[in-house]
Amino acid sequence: METGNVIPDDGLRVAINQAMGRTENPLVDVTLRDINVHPIRDLTVNTWSFVGEEYYLVESLRGLEHLTSLRTLDVYEPWPVNLPDRSNLPHLESLHLTSYNGEHLPEPTGSFPALHSIIIEDGGLVDLPAAMFSPIGKDPGSSVSTQLTIENAGHFTTLPDNPGQRPVFRAITISGTATTELPESLGGVTSVESITLKKNPRLSRIPEGLATLSNLTRVDISWSPELSSLPSSLFEVQTLDTLNVVRTGLTGLPSTLGDVSSLRLVDVSHNAIVTLPDSIGRLDKLESFVASANRIPALPSSITALPSLYYLDLSENQLTTLPSGLGAAVGLRFLLLSHNQLNDGLPEDISQIRLLEAINLGNNNLTRTPAFLNHRLGQGRENDDSLVNVHLNANPIATVPESVLTSHATIDLEGTNVSPEDPVVQRANEDGSDVAFTFS
């Protein structure tokens, strides 16, 4: 290692010599971290090792192109003012830049055939050189972490048009950027398993090309208010397991939603959805569906035919009624319907949901206890003595009929017109009935 002529004192020079020594093997890992100690204005890298626990503030970095065996380059803030050309690094696998303040990285004159992990955090970058995504010979081994991550880079706007030429990334994260859309060629990254897009306030379009991602299992999109729709082709991906699209401008879901036989978990909460496609009834493996905080006035009847559905959250919508047939949802345990406009006359067959553990009907327009409470709830849980939790709080309910005493439930009546002195409530407390009432 050669250093500039501004090393503060001989003591530091000795420390550097102790921490970095010549080696028979060329350098394979460079990590520079700023702890605001021992500032060095210039650092020229040749074939010296950078090891040990000593870290230095470096204002420029030169000579990386000579480290032909370099595998990892990991630099923390503040990044050197001028990043040199990183060409001729055939073994570089991982590039991690934090708080790089330049707008552009130097355009390399060579390629990086082994590069499979790119992490950009914070800083002023607006794009990445296309050469970083040049074709490679083969995918890395299964034990290697592969990712393209750009986080909290508020000036970043553009991925190059050719990321599909480097099909090695298993996880792609674009979060906290100024990106407006992703390149169509992203669909060429056939190895990708997870896509995360969060807090991109200008993101308005997801490319149709994602249909070609034959290994995609997870899509997570949130806090992107300009995104109003999802491409129908996304649901041609037959490996998709988890879909989270939260706090965007989404107004609906494509009718192709039901084509993804593998889909288990869906969260589309805090959007502007007004309808759900009838095809949802074809999602035989769907276990959790969350669509709270939307504008949904009615549910498709097919939603009652989901055999694997475990958790259904439709709270904070505009529902006035529920479809009959909910009793056919044999696996349903949690049904959350608070803060809607539900009226009396809810389906009595809710009592047939054999594994039911909780139903929340708080903050609706119910004037009497639902008829399904006239039956024993949770009958399929013979080995479970716990009561089914039924929340009727903040409804204009005035009385409780005696038939409710057989419901095998804990019924929350806080904020209703029912008094703790109600005769039926008193009888439940005195007779050890199979029901319990709460008012707090």
UniProtKB/TrEMBL annotation:
Origin organism is: Corynebacterium antarcticum
What protein name applies here? Leucine-rich repeat domain-containing protein
Superkingdom of the source? Bacteria
- PANTHER family (UniProt xref): PTHR48051, RAS SUPPRESSOR PROTEIN 1
- Give the matching SMART domains: LRR_BAC, LRR_TYP
Keywords of the record, alphabetical order, are:
Leucine-rich repeat, Repeat
The organism's lineage is: Bacteria, Bacillati, Actinomycetota, Actinomycetes, Mycobacteriales
Instruction: Extract the coiled-coil ranges from the record.
Output: none
Pfam families according to UniProt: LRR_8
